[in-house]
Design the sequence.
């Protein structure tokens, strides 16, 4: 059998022709050789419902932003908690995201603006589907990009290399590689030991192809997680995850990472972003969006703190199906739009900077005169992380039909 | 001779390599042909009866197969297609009777089961004090807290976060109950606690509940009879009673109703026109929605169902249409800082999810035009439980063009109604609805020929749902091997069918409803307007499978509170136990695994076997 080293080398030559192997690729070969036992881990976060990227990362340097949003704009940075947190003199974070500012300042958080899916759909369902399958416009894709992004396993793969937090397996993790949905690590077991053994053999032997596959994955994962379940978990470095599902999801991912069970990709989602009505409350930093962003930002900041040095192996990326209208609607909210914003956070991220080309917000600059235009394809960002961080150079398989993703230099 | 042959083999191997993708394509084509053939293969008579019970009910109960045999399959199906002619199970009706919010108007609901905001308004004197003693106790407790916290730093916020904090009640528990009673409630067995709660007179019971500290009430909740559970909720969080009634009634109906197909269709249509319980006013609008907009039309005309949902306060609120107004309304109003305007949410989902389907042939322009047609379709007093109200002042009077149809300027409420006409009679809708039904009742990938037959009936009968379902049930595809056991049960179906197969007695359906949530389908709580997917993949994943196995073992061993299984029904032969629950012979693999498990056991344990069968792969299909 071809060793992973040869496989990676060959693929590298296939991509770059005969020549020197780029630094990131030789490094991942090195890691895969066992000189370094720890895996690289990619964590994807989906903000379901289409977050209003323009109020998440505020283009306060753009006067049109204030013209189009008379009642829901976040004020220019003025040092108060009711204004944007200045990033670079043009963009600012929503005040609820202030806990992430230190991460940005330390260079470990990068922001990509005017990014998203090129498909014009404004249906949540379709747009989420496309972003999770990694094939905008193609409905028939049976599996998800994250499943395809898993590097070829050398030897037996960990049954928990791909985990989706929540009670159902995310679309993006469906596919030929084993992936499991875990709602709560401690509940992930058949509590009656007699039952556990019998169910295992039933699902192992059943001819029901659908249930056989999932059953087998399930029991392998159960065994893997048994050791973790016995220990209680205290986040490190005084990290405090916010209450609620999303904080809990990130905490469980951190726990899995630290337990070294072979996790490589993890997925979590957070809903409640579909702010058609009363997006912003009585004050700029209050209301629906602010509350949700606070949860989002606190959870990410806690995750970063909790993992400490282990962040060196970890890369977190956030996405949302599409952005929202540049103009506010009649209900102090926004409707379905186009381009959006993504966060990339990790130990090797070249952060402290807002990436992407700002398209402007004048009528003729807006997409269909209503939404922020797209200047970066989301697959450029994800492709770079898959190739450089996970060390999987097979981007033609991960993002079929998207032959030449343009890397932005988010990772060295 | 050998050498060239070997070389030829090598050569062909070499040639095969680049051809992998095309051979995969031909493999896919083979698979598709095999799949299509399955839909040509007919079921035998016994399979037909089981299939009908699997698909048109929430799973067979003991005796159902014989009952259908006796009536005749065709006649039984015909009766299920006319639920109004079926006498309802009187036991079910008795159990539904205490769930009074099911029959209330939204206005009654909002008054009887006030939200925390409403309670604060009463406490602050902005709303009248309720007559009900339990409700009054809740408000009084809140007022006491309110006064205490007022003096603190962040008054209102603290009250909002803890409206149930304990305080000194008017009468202490010692004054209401005698020492023996108290002892029972504190340390008695669950049965004794329940008996005592049942025996207390109305006034005494309420005084006792009011006097109890909250943890004690919570602790009694699990053993309490339905009436007492509702009183406890009324004290702890009045608004939760509405969710309680919805969930409990949904479970009870699935398990005990004689109108099984109608209940399956209620679940289907509610999910198709999904509304999320936790969105603001929808917390008190849902009982009205399901009762008035969904249930009367599950086998009726699609156009009626569509309009009933379009005009329901629940949908108007959920998809924001109640706030959508003509775009120019505040253009010249300088006093209005916040300009109101068009909201496209309903217009889009109406076409994408309710009627045409996402590829049904509409554009962003159509979305905007449809939204304009529905401006002014609003709710009278949306926070107080008012009904549908057309406000002409908010309506966009201009001309609109929807899918090529001109809707002339100057119209009123009929603009929206015309849109519903256009959409309900559109061929894409006929196809989309037929496909959704077929995916739910036949198979994930129903043959296109079947969908077209159903769509043709839809168009010919002007969207008569009963006729479309009839066409489906008369098709050879429905009665084929391609459909037989092709569906994975939804969590709701899994829970209901296991209770039915076990012939268990349900005294507390609330626990069961929460189990459905644990299995991955929180009822009335699907946030997205898509509803849950009708496809198997929605339910097959690790955490859901584990939850199913745990539930199965708990249920069969009588460890699910409020559900009682009569274990004496089951003999000691595991093969027979499996047959009793599956209504057919278990698969050899399932049987072997159970027999192996029993080898290690000293005594026969039918409860364990029953649990293993319910959690087996065999039982997850229908």
Sequence:
């Amino acid at each position: 059998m071809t060793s992973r080293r040869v496989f990676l080398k060959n693929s590298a030559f296939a991509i770059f022709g005969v020549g020197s192997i780029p630094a990131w690729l030789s490094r991942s070969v090195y890691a895969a050789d066992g000189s370094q036992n720890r895996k690289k881990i990619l964590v994807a976060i989906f903000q379901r419902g289409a977050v209003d990227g323009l109020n998440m990362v505020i283009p306060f340097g753009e006067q049109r932003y204030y013209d189009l949003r008379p009642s829901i704009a976040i004020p220019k940075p003025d040092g108060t908690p009711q204004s944007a947190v200045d990033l670079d003199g043009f963009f600012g974070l929503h005040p609820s995201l202030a806990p992430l500012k230190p991460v940005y300042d330390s260079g470990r958080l990068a922001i990509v603006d005017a990014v998203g899916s090129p498909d014009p759909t404004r249906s949540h369902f379709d747009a989420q589907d496309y972003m999770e399958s990694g094939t905008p416009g193609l409905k028939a894709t049976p599996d998800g990009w994250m499943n395809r992004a898993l590097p070829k396993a050398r030897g037996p793969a960990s049954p928990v290399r791909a985990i989706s937090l929540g009670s159902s397996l995310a679309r993006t993790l469906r596919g030929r590689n084993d992936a499991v949905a875990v709602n709560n690590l401690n509940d992930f077991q058949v509590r009656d030991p007699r039952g556990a053994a019998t169910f295992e053999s039933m699902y192992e032997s059943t001819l029901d192809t659908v249930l056989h596959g999932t059953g087998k994955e399930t029991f392998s994962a159960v065994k893997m997680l048994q050791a973790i379940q016995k220990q209680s978990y205290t986040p490190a470095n005084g990290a405090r995850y916010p209450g609620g599902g999303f904080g809990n999801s990130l905490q469980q991912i951190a726990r899995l990472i630290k337990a070294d069970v072979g996790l490589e990709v993890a997925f979590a989602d957070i809903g409640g972003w579909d702010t058609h009505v009363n997006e912003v409350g009585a004050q700029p930093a209050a209301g629906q969006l602010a509350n949700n962003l606070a949860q989002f930002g606190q959870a990410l900041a806690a995750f970063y703190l909790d993992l400490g040095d282990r962040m060196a192996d970890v890369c977190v990326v956030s996405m949302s199906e599409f952005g929202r209208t540049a103009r506010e609607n009649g209900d102090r909210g926004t409707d379905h739009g186009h381009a959006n914003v993504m966060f990339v956070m990790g130990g090797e991220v070249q952060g402290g900077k807002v990436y992407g080309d700002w398209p402007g917000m004048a009528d003729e600059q807006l997409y269909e005169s209503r939404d922020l235009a797209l200047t970066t394809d989301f697959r450029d960002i994800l492709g770079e992380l898959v190739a450089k961080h996970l060390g999987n150079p097979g981007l033609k398989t991960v993002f079929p039909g998207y032959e030449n993703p343009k890397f932005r230099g988010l990772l060295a | 001779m050998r050498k060239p042959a070997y070389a030829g083999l090598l050569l062909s191997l070499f040639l095969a390599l680049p051809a992998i993708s095309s051979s995969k394509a031909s493999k896919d084509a083979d698979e598709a042909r095999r799949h299509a053939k399955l839909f040509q293969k007919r079921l035998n008579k016994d399979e037909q009866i089981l299939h009908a019970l699997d698909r048109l009910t929430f799973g067979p109960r003991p005796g159902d197969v014989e009952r259908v045999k006796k009536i005749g399959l065709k006649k039984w199906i015909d009766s299920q297609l006319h639920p109004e002619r079926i006498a309802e199970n009187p036991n079910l009706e008795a159990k539904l009777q205490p769930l009074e919010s099911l029959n209330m108007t939204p206005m009654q609901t909002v008054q009887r089961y006030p939200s925390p905001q409403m309670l604060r308004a009463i406490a602050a004197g902005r709303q009248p004090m309720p007559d009900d003693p339990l409700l009054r106790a809740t408000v009084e407790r809140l007022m006491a807290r309110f006064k205490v916290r007022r003096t603190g730093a962040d008054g209102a916020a603290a009250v909002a976060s803890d409206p149930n904090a304990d305080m000194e009640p008017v009468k202490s528990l010692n004054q209401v109950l005698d020492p023996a009673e108290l002892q029972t409630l504190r340390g008695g067995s669950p049965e004794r606690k329940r008996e005592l709660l049942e025996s207390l007179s109305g006034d005494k019971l309420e005084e006792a509940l009011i006097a109890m500290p909250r943890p004690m009430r919570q602790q009694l909740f699990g053993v309490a009879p339905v009436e007492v559970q509702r009183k406890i909720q009324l004290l702890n969080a009045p608004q939760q009673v509405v969710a309680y009634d919805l969930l409990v009634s949904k479970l009870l109906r699935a398990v005990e109703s004689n109108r099984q197909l109608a209940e399956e269709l209620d679940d289907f249509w509610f999910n198709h026109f999904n509304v999320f319980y936790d969105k603001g006013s929808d917390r008190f609008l849902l009982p009205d929605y399901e009762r008035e907009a969904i249930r009367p039309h599950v086998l009726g005309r699609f156009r009626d169902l569509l309009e009933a949902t379009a005009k329901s306060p629940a949908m108007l609120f959920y998809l924001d249409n109640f706030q959508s107004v003509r775009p120019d309304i505040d253009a010249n109003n300088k006093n209005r800082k916040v300009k109101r305007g068009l909201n496209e949410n309903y217009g889009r989902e109406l076409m994408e999810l309710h009627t045409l389907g996402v590829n049904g042939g509409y554009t962003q322009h159509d979305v905007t035009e449809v939204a304009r047609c529905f401006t002014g379709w609003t709710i009278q007093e949306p926070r107080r439980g008012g009904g549908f109200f057309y406000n002409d002042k908010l309506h966009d009077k201009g001309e609109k063009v929807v899918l090529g149809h001109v809707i002339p300027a100057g119209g009123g409420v009929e603009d929206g109604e015309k849109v519903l006409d256009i959409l309900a009679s559109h061929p894409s809708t006929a196809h989309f609805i037929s496909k959704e039904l077929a995916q739910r009742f036949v198979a994930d990938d129903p043959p296109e020929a079947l969908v077209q037959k159903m769509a043709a009936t839809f168009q010919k009968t002007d969207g008569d749902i009963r006729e479309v379902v009839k066409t489906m049930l008369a098709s050879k595809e429905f009665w084929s091997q391609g459909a037989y056991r092709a569906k994975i049960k939804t969590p709701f179906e899994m829970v209901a069918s296991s209770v039915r197969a076990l012939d268990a007695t349900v005294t507390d359906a609330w626990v069961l409803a929460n189990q459905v949530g644990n299995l991955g389908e929180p009822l009335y709580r699907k946030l997205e307007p898509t509803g849950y997917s009708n496809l198997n993949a929605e339910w097959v994943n690790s955490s859901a499978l584990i939850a199913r196995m745990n539930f199965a073992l708990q249920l069969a061993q009588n460890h699910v509170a409020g559900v009682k299984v009569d274990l004496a029904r089951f003999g000691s032969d595991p093969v027979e136990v499996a047959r009793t629950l599956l209504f057919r012979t278990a698969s050899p693999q399932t049987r072997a695994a159970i027999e192996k498990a029993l080898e290690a056991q000293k005594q026969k344990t039918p409860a364990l076997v029953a649990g293993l069968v319910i959690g087996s792969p065999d039982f997850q299909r229908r």
The beta strands of chain B are 377-379, 388-390, 400-402, 405-407, 505-506, 563-564. Confidence is low (pLDDT under 50) at residues 1-20, 148-166 of chain B.
